[in-house]
Amino acid sequence: MEKMTVQEAYEKAVNGVIDQGGFSYDVGLCLYRDDCGKKCAIGHIIPDSLYCAELEGNTVSEICVRTVLKRLIEGLDARAAALFRKIQTIHDEMAQEVHILDVRKKLEIFRGRCIDAGKAHHLDTFRISEVSITEG
User: For 10-133, where are the E strands, in sequence order?
Assistant: First the structure.
């Protein structure tokens, strides 16, 4: 399995959520994979061959998730891990946001916050800005 760069993993995580038109969660719990086939941002980085149910309930900060991500992302240091934890937090916050009912609006906010996170980590955000938002 060829490793992704931090840039490639960032784009895959953010654009994956936007492309699927929504968030992966169930009754207040965000999921790497949900029963409808949706994935959270970090879930888009993790291929089915490396996914296991034991990852659920663990954040990027947990050793089991970090171990999987280290197999997938070249140069996953503490700074890059902090970026992916931030993206995970943004996903989880937007998935559980109850004051905004319009999924498209949630996805626009998600994208904007992820672009800010990417810029703070000196990543190119052009491919994030160009993705069309559709509700899935």
Answer: 25-26, 29-30
Segments in 73-102 forming alpha helices (H)? 78-96
Per residue of the chain (136 residues), give pLDDT as tens: 789 999 999 999 999 999 999 999 887 788 999 999 999 999 999 999 999 999 999 999 999 999 999 999 999 999 999 999 999 999 999 998 888 889 999 999 999 999 999 999 999 999 897 777 876 6
Contact 14, 111 (CB under 8 A): yes
Report the 10 Å Cβ neighbour count for 17: 31
**Cα separations (Å) of 57 from 15, 21, 29, 60, 62?**
22, 22, 8, 10, 10
